[in-house]
């Protein structure tokens, strides 16, 4: 009885936190198509100004991959009114910090400033959008920066090519088949005119969302936003090509040699639906059941009990058009990747044929409640979530309601989604092995 009361108390506490975490926001669109989202939070004297552009590696020419990620760097080079190399100096001198990141689907820039510097942040982001300086010296400089990043994060990183190796084998026609870092040869071959054309096409107000979150006065913010962003001309509407992959109906087998590893990796990957679907959320839950924490099924079985694996995991690699469900493991001792795959498949069959227990189901829901709270625990996290839910999901209020979708998922759905997507004839088996000649495959 005591345990039941404690469990009930825990649930009520989580429910109360989730309710208190409801994110209030205001949204509107400027005449030039720039969508604006405002979220006021006066709990700390800071303000986040961010712009997310609907451009990622999937929007690139197959002969010019890496452009979207390259622009993540290039657009810090300077503008008509911000000298080359001065961007970071201005931010630092005013007590702020900033960064950017790129995925297959979008590019995100943000500044965090003391709240009295909102006007500066808005001016800087409007400068990036309206007056970027894209010249040869900037392109050459950032080309070397990107090459060094690729050397550090991919070429010389153990298992650093895993995602790229999976992508190039599981996608046949979709631009997801290459990684955001792209090809250095493509970047070397690109002309200045090609970079300028990419900027003109994608870095336009009607392909972006501006988020201001934190301690600020909404009326004043709206005035500044109109002053700085309202004068920027609307760009030509982007016509996006739709790519559809044929279903995988028999196992794809491929090999990738990595010169940076000594232990082969078991890799099994299934193509899954868009992150916007309900099934994608169910797959998130399946990942948690299989490999979230030391009490998860795969970890407990293969690492703790049988000591067959040094590491094992499952994760849902969510994207706007398709996703990938990746299972991986590093064999220990005399065990092989085939041994690990057999154990993993046994656990998947259990999910496909048996309902998880009510106790495990409650634990799962508690985990997702906790994740929801943590995702919106900082104003920086809220800003990025607001931008993402608008730009990629088409519904800003998912920041408040997505958790309800997870709550509504049933044990039967978990079983049925495992049956629908996680079958041997629907997957890629990648033999990810050490390079025999220590040369990149």
Automatic annotation (TrEMBL):
Gene3D superfamilies, A to Z: Metalloenzyme, LuxS/M16 peptidase-like
Short name of any one Pfam family annotated for the protein: Peptidase_M16_C
Domain of life of the source: Bacteria
Molecular function terms, GO-annotated: metal ion binding; metallopeptidase activity
Signal peptide residue numbers: 1-20
Similarity remark: Belongs to the peptidase M16 family.
Domain Peptidase M16 C-terminal, residue spans: 190-367
GO annotation (BP), single: proteolysis
Keywords tagged on the record: Hydrolase, Metalloprotease, Protease, Signal, Zinc
Protein name: Peptidase M16
Domain Peptidase M16 N-terminal: residue ranges: 36-174
């Amino acid at each position: 009885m005591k345990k039941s009361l404690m469990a009930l108390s825990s649930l009520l506490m989580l429910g109360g936190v989730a309710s208190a975490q409801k994110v209030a926001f205001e949204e509107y669109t400027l005449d030039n198509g720039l969508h604006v989202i405002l979220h006021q939070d006066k709990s700390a004297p800071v303000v986040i100004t961010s712009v997310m552009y609907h451009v990622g590696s999937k929007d690139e020419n197959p002969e010019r991959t890496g452009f979207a990620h390259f622009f993540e760097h290039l657009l810090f080079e300077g503008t008509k009114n911000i000298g080359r190399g001065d961007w970071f100096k201005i931010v630092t001198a005013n007590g702020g910090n900033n960064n950017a990141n790129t995925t297959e689907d979008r590019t995100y820039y943000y500044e965090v400033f003391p709240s009295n510097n909102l006007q500066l942040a808005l001016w800087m982001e409007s400068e990036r959008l309206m007056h970027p300086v894209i010249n040869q010296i900037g392109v050459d400089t950032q080309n070397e920066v990107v090459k060094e990043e690729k050397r550090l994060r991919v070429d010389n990183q153990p298992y650093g090519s895993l995602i790229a190796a999976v992508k190039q084998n599981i996608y046949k026609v979709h631009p997801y088949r290459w990684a955001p870092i792209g090809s250095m040869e493509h970047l070397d071959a690109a002309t200045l005119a090609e970079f300028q054309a990419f900027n003109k096409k994608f870095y336009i107000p009607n392909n972006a969302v501006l988020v201001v979150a934190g301690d600020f006065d909404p009326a004043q913010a709206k005035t500044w936003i109109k002053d700085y962003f309202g004068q920027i001309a609307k760009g030509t509407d982007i016509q996006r090509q739709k790519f559809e992959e044929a279903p995988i109906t028999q196992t794809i087998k491929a090999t990738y040699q990595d010169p940076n590893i000594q232990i082969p990796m078991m890799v099994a990957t299934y193509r899954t639906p868009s992150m916007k679907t309900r099934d994608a959320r169910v797959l998130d839950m399946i990942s948690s059941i299989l490999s979230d924490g030391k009490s998860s099924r795969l970890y407990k079985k293969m690492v703790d009990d049988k000591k067959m694996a040094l590491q094992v995991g499952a994760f849902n690699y969510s994207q706007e058009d398709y996703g990938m469900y990746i299972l991986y493991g590093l064999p220990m001792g005399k065990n092989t990747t085939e041994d690990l795959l057999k154990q993993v498949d046994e656990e998947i069959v259990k999910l496909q044929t048996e309902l998880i227990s009510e106790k495990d189901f409650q634990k799962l829901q508690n985990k997702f409640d906790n994740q929801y709270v943590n995702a919106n625990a900082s104003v920086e996290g809220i800003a990025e979530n607001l931008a993402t839910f608008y730009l990629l999901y088409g519904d800003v209020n998912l920041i408040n309601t997505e958790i309800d979708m997870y709550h509504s998922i049933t044990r039967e759905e978990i079983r049925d989604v495992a049956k629908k997507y996680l079958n041997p004839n629907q997957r890629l088996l990648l033999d990810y092995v050490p390079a025999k000649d220590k040369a990149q495959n």
